[in-house]
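Suppose a colleague, Dr. K., hands you the sequence of a protein chain of 228 amino acids and asks what its three-dimensional shape might be. Before reaching for any lab equipment, you can write down a predicted structure in C-alpha cell form. Begin with the sequence itself:
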Amino acid sequence: MVAQTRNSGQSSPRKLKFQEKILVKGYSADVILKKLKALHNELADLDQDIDKKSLSSVRQELISTSILLHKDAGVKAYAACCLADLLRLYAPDAPYTSNELRDIFQFFFHQLSRGLQGPEAPYYNEYFHLLESLSTVKSVVLICDLASAESLMAQVFRDLFGLVRKDLAKKIEIFMADILIALVEEAHALPSEVLNIVLAQFMDKNVVCLLASVSVFSSFIHPTFYSR
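The predicted structure, expressed as C-alpha cells, is then:
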C-alpha cells in the first residue's frame, strides 16, 4: 500500500523556514512548546515538494528522548503532530531507522490513548490531527515492515479499541477503523494476539465497540487474507 499524499502545483521546492533549535539547555517547557507550535503550523502547510534537506535538523531533534519523554503534555502533543507531518512529507518512505520508527509509533499510540479521552481533554485538537494523519496518509503501514511488527500491531489494536465508547465522535471512529484495516491489509500475517484482541470485542456490551469490531473483522474474512 502506498501512502496517500497531497498534490502540489509548485514548480520549485520550498524550504522549511523554521531553522531554530528546539532543545537548548535551560529552555522552559513554555519556550519549547512555542517553538513546536510554530514548527507544526509550518509543516502542516507544506507539500511533498519540500526540499527534504531543509527538514534534517528538526527531523532528528523531534525524536530526542528529551522530547518524547518530556513531562509536559503539550510538548508531547505538538511533537507528535510534527512527527506525523514529517512522515507525510517523506511518504511513502520514512527518514528514520527501524528502531526509531518503533519508538515513534509507540509514542503516537501511547499519546492517543491518553489524549482522545474526550473533547475536553487537553490538546484534543492536536491528537485529532495526529489520528487523522495516520488515517489518511497511511504512514501506519510502516509498522508492518518492522522487526517488532507483531507487538506494535497488538498495541495499536489494544489502544484504539480502548478508546471506543458510545459518545465517540463518528469521525474518530472512522479514522480508527481506517488505521486498523490498513494494518490488516498490509500485514504479512495476522498476529494471534491481534486476532484475540478483535474477537474479545464481541464480548463487550458496548454496542459502538461491537460495531467497530465488525468493521475491522470484515477485513479478516476477505479471501486474500487466507491466501497468505
